[in-house]
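Consider the subject:
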Amino acid sequence: MSEKRSIVTVSAIICATAMLLSGCGAGNQNTASDGKPIVVVQVVKDARAKKMADMEWTQDLEAACDCHITWQETVSSSWDQQKKAALAAEEVADVTISGFGAGDMAEYGSLFLDLTDELDNMPNLKKLFEAEPYAQAVSTTADGKILGTPAVGRSITARTSNHMFINKQWLDTLGLQVPTTWDELEEVLVAFKTQDPNGNGQADEIPLDFNSPGTGGFGLFQPNVLLASMGIVVGNGPLGMYVEDGIVKNYLTDDRYKDLIVYLNRLWEDGVISSEAFTHDWSKYTSTAKGEEGTAKVGVTWMWTPSDIFGTELADQYITIPSLKAEDGQSETPVWSYNGDDLAYQADRAVVSAKVSNKEAALKVVDAFYSPDISIQARYGSFDTCVKKNGAADYTVLDPADSTKNASDWQFTNSLADGAPGWIGGDMKLELPEQLTEYRAADATYDGDFENVDFNNDVFYANMPMTMDQSRTVSANNTGITQGAMSKFAQWVTKGGVDDEWDEYVASLQKNNLDENIEVYQQVYDSFKKTMAGTGVDLNSLNNE
């Protein structure tokens, strides 16, 4: 009896999984009772987002494609396992939004429809590629196919996600100046720890906090950004990779990285780094920065805007500071962290299944995202509730109708936000709430640092396509490289020992084929530079407009 029950249960799971992954629905019905085609759209979205059917703008999307959309919705934190199952089964939905990336295109490209010969049937997307050639460059695979479509919005994005904030009110209370070097920062952090700058009579200040580095590598809002003090343009790509004068390098074995670890260990010994910096999750990191009952707790950290990390009540206490010098008289010119190419041109936001049943309707769905009205609503929310349409390509994003939400939370609740395919064009007139333009002042702080960056030769670009062999090579090598590097980073910052163990550590990374990965990425970089040159892209011009 139990054996039969097990067989039935397993069969049910397999059946349900197959239906979910295939996107075909019960009975393989591809046409609704009214004769209109059905398009299954898998969307990977923020946990704050409401159901797609409850976003009124999705009705406009259906009208644009003259079809019915069946939504499959997955929170981004749960997508990875589902994605692996879908790729293994070679079954993906008709259209997937924010679900697949360049690595998936290299390894599983045959699962997705090549849109190169479909552009005449996608007039909005074709117009985008003609107006923004870099958008087509990041959408083109190593073998010349267009398997995914981008999200483009240069006018509404920054050059970096990593903005460094310090509590100016605390500085003023203690009579301190804004630090300009690592030593000065250390002095300020020690003062924050010992002199009660928030004035509540308790030693509850956290001088320095950051987003916890994971075992999989560095991400945003983490202290590796301080490598910019010594001339390394830190991106948000493969662990340790950066570019100087067109040459791909890796900072994991660079003495400047060792110097940073020595400095961070010194701060740890000073007791000025949060004791939870290597263990807290995202929720704890962000909630701690918002303080308690109007009292700030964190002195220095990194984030997109002050309001995002400290909340609107405390945001005014903080200022953005430019790149520090590692030391006075250093030979290296400070720069800053850069991921602006990825922010402005996010690749593979939408892909179409190679086995799509209603291809014409699916292409219309994707293309509709690049019309002005859908682009705006998919990113900011529906007309009347979230956006006022003033005229053709003229919009005002409204303040939140819910007073308990800030502008960012309201946006992520009512739209796909930056996860949406679309094109916010430079000829579009767009008025945003103050909270959604707060990043501009933060980003402008780094104007001087970015003057020291040649965006055509000193940036490890996001979204560079790889061949299947290249992808498999770096993936095979990355396991040993990442495990060794990240475990040592946490150990050395909290316990010391980097000087004694450095040579052995470097040898271990080389044994795990770090040099081979650098060689592969040089090939990838050189190939992408040729694509950029062929489309006439000049990133120095784009970043200085």
The chain has two domains: 21-152+345-430, 163-337+448-544. The domain at 21-152+345-430 is CATH 3.40.190.10 (D-Maltodextrin-Binding Protein; domain 2).
